[in-house]
Amino acid sequence: MPERPPVLHTDTMVVEHRDADGKVVRYDFDQLPGAPGLKRSLAEVFAARCARSGGWASHKTSEQAWWAVRQFVSCLAGQDDAPSDLEALTASSWKRWRLSRPSGTSGRAQLRVVSSLLREHPRVPLATREAIAERLGKAKPVEPSFSAAEFARLTTTARRVFRTAHLRITGNARTLTAFRRGELAAGCGPWLLGEELDHLARHGEVASEDDGCARTIRRRRAAAGFTNVTEFRRRLFLTGHEVTALAVLLTVEYGFNLSTISRLPVPRAETDGGEDGHPVWRLEIEKVRRGPGRHFETRNLADFGANAPGRLITQALEATQFARVLLAELHPDVDRLMVWRPTVQNPYRTGSSFGDAFGVLRVGVTPTMGKKWAEVEKLPCSPFRRGRRTSNVHLRRESGQNTQDTHDSVYVLPDARIQQEAIEDIAAGVGDALASARRAVLSASLRQEPDPGDVPTVTADCHDIEHSQFTAPGTACTASFLLCLACTNARIHPGHHPRLAHLHACLAALSSVLDTDRWAARWQQAYERLEDLKAQLGPAMWTAAQDRITDDDRDLVDLLLKGDFDR
Question: What is the mean pLDDT of the chain?
């Protein structure tokens, strides 16, 4: 097996990202403005995310991150105190970048991507990490769900377009089957039509008039009802407009997102075990998610009648049968359901924005196709994002390829229709959000090195032991060492990190053995402050701290948890 090429080339600043299908996209950091050291450091953390275990499984994710990094580097290059490397990145530089971002979803997305990359690099100063860790908040959803009338119009339109195509293809399929079985009289009109359909099915194109006498071919085609080459191609294949309608129906019926629909493998059939032998279609669903790996699931949809869950899958297989057979002959390694053939008359041009090309065929449905479809059908917008939201929130009323928390927080609670229809549920959600807002946070300051004038404690160094916020002014502080994490006089430097990481692990272990109320009353706030510290330091520094835990750290934490310390 050949070795996999490096993600970041040592002699250049080119990062290669290879997705699950083996396709490679290259990002050249040398072309960005700014100091070489800064670009090299950003390329290193970017390459780590592009690695097989880095968490970026699709090119769409890395392309969005690349766009955010370009904006970040360009902003830094235009500042008077432009850093030469990440170790020179100041909190003020980060705050200027943050204020320059748009206030909507795109600006927040850029901040999230860049902040996650910076937290991965150990040379980012602690003061800058504190600024990066400031909460961004959540943006309101860009697209609302459809109203009941809009959703009904969308569904009716998609069904009309796809039903017309399905009837056309299945009708011609019956003629082709009869021709191949020899059930038609040679030379009659249906036989001539079957002959033309057979050539179209095998090659994806009508027979050329150069293959024989043009006059004879035109006469035979006229007898077969063949009047237009472009229209004849549609007899066995879906067009881009029609396959988009099918994608809309899959979104509406099953709550799939567009990328899942485009990558959907051909469903496999199993019988339901009954006397009638109704098919049960097994769908293998893949969705790219944030973080490492992908989300896979299977759904079994039975087709036992007109309104059965699997009826749409049966019709989709019938409408794409000839395109899929032809694709399997040309590219046996490609297993996709959404296969179609462009025609001259449809509004879809060539290019990657209109599916992946395989000879005369194309695979998948893209957002551009959704916008074109809506324009032709005189609908207000692309149907997919709002259609999926409407389906999962109002029709199916369950999560679709999301966790329940994501479904509730991103799709259900912000939805205006849900807010009107379920006021009591919204009130309960606001209560949960208020509890989250009251979560304890770290008040101690992070320092790169200790201050000789500070007084060491078990969890931090105290900068002013006689002016604590927990005791009367002018008297020595007698509060618990755990409250040092909540005191503005406390200073935390790298020497404290291993001990605090061990304390964090011990508190987490206690939560699994103590009664929930007892643990919450005694330890929860300290644990939440340590969680905040962990987020500010970042995974790289936190892992390094865990590796440096000593026996003295373990002994001190053990005494602290047992309450054996005397002030």
Answer: 83
Q: Which of 475, 477, 483 shows the shortest CA–CA distance to 459?
A: 483
Burial (0-12, 13-18, 19+ Cβ within 10 Å), 358? middle
Q: What are the tens digits of pLDDT across the range 500-537?
A: 999 999 999 998 888 888 998 899 999 999 999 999 99
Which residue is it, tokens 């008039």? 209
Half-sphere exposure of 184 (CA within 13 A, CB side): 18
Question: Do strands 361-363 and 445-446 pair parallel, antiparallel, or not at all (unpaired)?
Answer: unpaired
- Reading the block at residue 296, the tokens are 């896979």
Q: Count of CB atoms within 10 A of residue 213's CB?
A: 10
Instruction: Select the highest-mean-pLDDT range: 1-10, 207-216, 244-253.
Output: 244-253
Burial letters for 159-176: b for 16+ Cβ neighbours within 10 Å, e otherwise?
bebbeebbebbeebbebb
CA atoms within 13 A on the CB side of 89: 34
- Report d(CA 503, CA 501) in Å as an integer: 5
Sign of the alpha-carbon dihedral angle for 329, 330, 335, 341: negative
Give the strand pairing for 445-446 and 490-492.
parallel
Q: What is the pLDDT of residues 435-474, one digit of tens each?
A: 666 677 888 899 999 998 899 999 999 998 888 888 888 8
Residue 54 has pLDDT above 60, yes or no: yes
In DSSP notation, 134-201 reads S----PPPSSPPPPHHHHHHHHHHHHHHHHHHHHHHHHHHHHHHHHHTT-S-TTSHHHHHHHHHHHHH
Distance CA 162, CA 373 (A): 12
Buried/exposed code over 336-350 (b: 16+ C-beta within 10 A; e: otherwise): bbbbbbbbeebebee
Q: Which tokens go with 64?
A: 């969005």
- Helix ranges (H only) for 209-336 are 214-223, 229-233, 240-254, 258-262, 311-319, 321-330
Model's pTM, two decimal places?
A: 0.58
Q: Which own/partner pairs from 26-33 qualify as long-range (CB within 8 Å, at least 24 positions apart)?
A: 27/62, 27/66, 32/69, 32/70, 32/73, 32/74, 33/73, 33/74, 33/77
What string of DSSP letters covers 43-55? HHHHHHHHSTTSS
Q: Are 70 and 43 a contacting pair, CB within 8 Å? A: no
Amino acid sitting at position 504: H
- In 3D space, the residue among 527, 460, 452, 532 whose CA is nearest the CA of residue 494 turns out to be 460
Q: Which pLDDT tens digit goes with each residue over 169-196?
A: 999 999 999 999 999 888 787 888 888 8
At residue 396, what are phi and psi to the nearest 5 degrees?
A: -80, -30
| 23 CB-near residues (< 8 Å, 6+ apart) | 59
7, 94, 97, 218, 481 from 114: Cα distances, Å: 19, 10, 10, 63, 35
Q: Which amino acid is at 435?
A: A
pLDDT tens-place string over residues 250-306: 999 998 888 889 889 999 887 655 566 688 898 888 765 554 455 677 888 888 888
